[in-house]
Amino acid sequence: MKLTVLGKYGPYGKAGDGCASSYLVENDGEYIVLDMGSGTLARLCDRVDIKKVKHIFISHLHFDHTSDLLPFRYLLEEQSHKVNIYTRLEDSEWYKILFNHPNFNVVNIDENSVIDIGNMQLRFLPMKHTVPCFAIIIKGEKTMCYTGDTLYNDNIDKCFEQSDLVLADCSKPSGCTAPHMTVDDARRLALKYPNTKIIATHQSASYDPADDLKGTGIISAQQGGIYQI
């Protein structure tokens, strides 16, 4: 199983070529896109033939995780290609704008959902954010979790207990009061789960967590970075 970071910033990209949240998981010829923030469609096209992408998981409906779904629809129309979208059902205008399209097959998920894709199994856990948000656990020969956006909560431990690698929203500076985990949370999780690889993502454009994570074994996500799980 391989993970590629297409974009790592939030709530907006970094000047230059910094993109918002999006990640590509590849396993035995199957591809799953995790979120699709601003600027990431071009990076996705650079990494894989779009017709090989059949599955997209959307953790929550904030703009920095969903905005490139809109131009993506033009590309799907042009290529006569359809994809499955896994996301939580919401009675909102943004949900309708994003997903009401003939090239999207929307599969509404909750904490009881189990999705099989090839030799992978997908499960979901609710997180703690300003809007409903789900983590995704992808189990193949190895297991990874992507937390989406979240503060620390009891389900974070469930993510770590099940996973060889966790792609975690834990990159905000110490003392940050935004609805995200900080580098302090990251350090505590690294101590509690020493056998789990942690990749810290959802980074601020104005703050690089790498220096504050030195010596912890935590990887600061690199845009374009490829990680084996």
What structural category characterises the helix and strand content?
alpha/beta
List the strand order in the largest sheet: 6-5-4-3-2-1-14
How much of the residues is beta strand, in percent? Answer: 25-35%
| Mean pLDDT over the full residue set | 96
Q: What assembly state would you assign to the polypeptide chains in this entry?
A: single chain
The total of beta strands comes to 14
Shape annotation = globular
Question: What sequence of helices (H) and strands (E) makes up the elements?
Answer: EEEHEHHEHEEEEEHEHEEE
Instruction: Please state the CA-atom Rg, rounded to the nearest Å.
Output: 16 Å
In percent, how helical is the residue content?
A: 10-25%
Low-confidence regions: none
Biggest sheet: strands, sense, closure?
Answer: 7 strands, mixed
Count of helices? 6
